[in-house]
Write a sequence for this structure.
């Protein structure tokens, strides 16, 4: 009797290389990615009274606090820009980055039960986190746009320029940075769980090493190397310069940020690919 040749629709095997990322397989599971994005958005606010309205309330309350603390009490410079617009610009993009990074950094720990039972490309989870955070960002970004329109056409105190067209690229850079750095921490916390506490504390400190509540021009010269070494600095300055029309933005700084973020993303993928093969033994 002739042997029956079996044709498999799926073949699960260990990756051949740490650098191998099967994007075709990720695309094959795109329905799962969409489902996870919807789940993250719906379940987080399903049992809240105000629902997605919190997306507006949170940046507004934070902006008021910054205006009082940093604008009125500390008297920090805003490069002559309206304080509300200046602080809201920083808050809008910082909220996206910090949330995406924080949630991505606990991927293995939060999803260990699922990873141990069902097969799917593990990269789907961090991608869904970074993507679902974009929905919250879109709502807060619309609030920021309303503020920009007010100060542009009513008070005429800001002058947006062509650099607003770089917005999709800036968002992509922040997503890539949060994804890469988050995957690194997620992989490390499977073995060193204390790092999750360090990251929570580190993100709070990182905000003050990023031009969120102050412009780069107001930073002391001897400490500017800290700002220059931060890949987010060029992104924040470009965002403010494009929408508010003022700042010390240089295109070269954005290029440096892109190179650093690309390197971090590659390192994140390598470490993530290595740890996903054996993380169930340590998580």
């Amino acid at each position: 009797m002739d042997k029956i040749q079996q044709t498999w629709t799926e073949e699960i095997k260990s990756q051949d290389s740490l650098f191998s990322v099967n994007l075709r397989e990720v695309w094959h599971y795109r329905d799962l990615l969409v489902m996870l994005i919807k789940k993250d958005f719906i379940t987080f606010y399903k049992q809240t009274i105000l629902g997605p309205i919190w997306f507006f309330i949170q940046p507004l309350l934070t902006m008021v606090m910054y205006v009082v603390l940093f604008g009125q009490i500390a008297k920090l410079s805003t490069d002559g820009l309206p304080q509300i617009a200046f602080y809201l610009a920083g808050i809008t993009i910082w909220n996206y980055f910090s949330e995406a990074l924080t949630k991505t950094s606990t991927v293995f720990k939060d999803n260990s039960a699922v990873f141990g039972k069902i097969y799917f490309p593990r990269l789907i989870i961090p991608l869904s986190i970074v993507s679902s955070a974009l929905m919250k960002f879109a709502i807060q970004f619309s609030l920021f746009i309303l503020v920009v329109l007010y100060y542009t056409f009513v008070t005429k105190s800001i002058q947006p320029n062509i650099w607003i067209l770089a917005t999709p690229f800036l968002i992509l850079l922040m997503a890539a940075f949060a994804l890469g750095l988050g995957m690194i921490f997620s992989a490390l916390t499977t073995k060193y769980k204390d790092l999750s506490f360090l990251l929570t504390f580190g993100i709070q400190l990182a905000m003050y090493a990023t031009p969120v509540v102050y412009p780069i021009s107001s930073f002391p010269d001897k400490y500017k190397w800290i700002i220059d070494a931060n890949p987010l600095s060029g992104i924040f300055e470009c965002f403010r310069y494009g929408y508010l029309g003022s700042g010390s933005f240089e295109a070269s700084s954005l290029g440096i940020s892109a190179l650093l973020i690309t390197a971090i993303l590659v390192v994140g993928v390598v470490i993530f690919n290595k740890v996903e093969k054996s993380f169930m033994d340590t998580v």
Notes: The longest helix spans residues 124-153. The CA atoms of residues 32 and 124 lie 8 Å apart.
